[in-house]
Amino acid sequence: MNASSTSADSLAPAVSKTSSGPKEFSYEAIHKLPRAARYFNVSVLWIAYYAHLTRLFYALRIRHEIVTLMSIASGLSAAAILMSGTTTAALILCAVLVHLKDVFDACDGSLARLTGKGHRIGRFLDTIGDGVVFTALVASVAWYGIERGGLVAGTLIWAGMTWLSLFLQCSYFNYYHLRYTRQIGASSLSHLDEHSANDDDGAYGSRAARLLLAVLQQVYLWWFGWQDRLIQHLDRSFLRGVRRSEAAGERDPGRWYGARAFLVATSALCYGTHAFVLILCLLAGHPAWFFPAVVVGMNLYWVAILVSRWIVFRGAV
Length: 317
Description:
The protein is mostly helical. The protein has helices spanning 50-59, 64-84, 88-115, 120-147, 152-184, 207-244, 248-251, 254-258, 260-267, 271-283, 290-314.
């Protein structure tokens, strides 16, 4: 077998090898959006130092795919410890691992942007990995509660509602972030419609890489596709109502997706906030508090965003 077909580089799209060497590290290059179009992402508050860790990974020449796997491993380790640990020390260790999962999750995309080696295999692996990790964490919190005398039926209902809530909340954030990214013309490996594969044709260096991409894309569409369609339907329903009111959003559609105040508010629905809330519950010694925090607290916050957006744009002059 040709060695190049099994190398990590074969996963990435083929690029011209005209570079004279590694680029100098730039904090500006790690961001998803250009400075003039950037908005404050609330979920980054809990991991504000991630840019410096990204710099360390860059200096050590650690690939972004490795950091993605580190993120997944940290999250799954936290879930395993929570299912077996009963001591305060175990809960603290679990909280640390959840935090590391969140930090690594921010670093992998930053490294991909910085090095210019991002690809859709990594993009799908990152998203699916988040899904697997948060599913495991929700299951471990449920197990922890049941093992300590919680009602099985009630705990499982709370767990199911939490699982559904956190994924829909983050899908809502992703939808508006991608609409904004597309509106300002910034590049992104993510698409509003992930059925698209035109940019993948002929871009990967091996048959194994193309097969892996196809498998990951199908898993993504099965797991997250219905969520994306639901959020898109919700958005279109709200936007139709705003346009019928002949508000300013009708005359300037870009305002609906470009309102940075709402982008800032929506960013708090990202996975990073869910991780932070879980960490607080773990440190408080009550992991099960995570369920009502997400189902009640964060869903009420989400509804407040929906209602506020509706009121603001219907009342625009």
